[in-house]
Amino acid sequence: MTLEGKKIAVLIAPRGTEEAEFTKPKEAVEAAGADVTVVGIEVGEAKTNNGDLDPGGSYDVDKASLNQSSIQFGRGVIRAR
Fold it and tell me: In terms of domain of life, where is this protein from (predicted)?
């Protein structure tokens, strides 16, 4: 499946998101050719976890969710537990 030319929003919490639940979907849609924007509660940095306690990586948040219209994106990736 190709996502060339599609704008995809990948959502992340400011902290506490499981690293693999953020990175794997993001990498998959990027590999399919999508233009990915990381959306969070506020612009800045989000920190992930590995398991419940181990720190993961830090990721830049491109856009704040309250400032985004859903019609700006072709799809959104939401990882539910």
Answer: Bacteria
pTM value? 0.81
Average predicted confidence (pLDDT) for the chain: 86
Homologous superfamily, domain 7-77: Class I glutamine amidotransferase (GATase) domain (3.40.50.880)
Residue 65, pLDDT score = 82
Listed by start position, the domains of the chain span 7-77
> How would DSSP label each residue in 35-63?
EEEEEESSSEEEEEEETTTEEEEEEEE-E
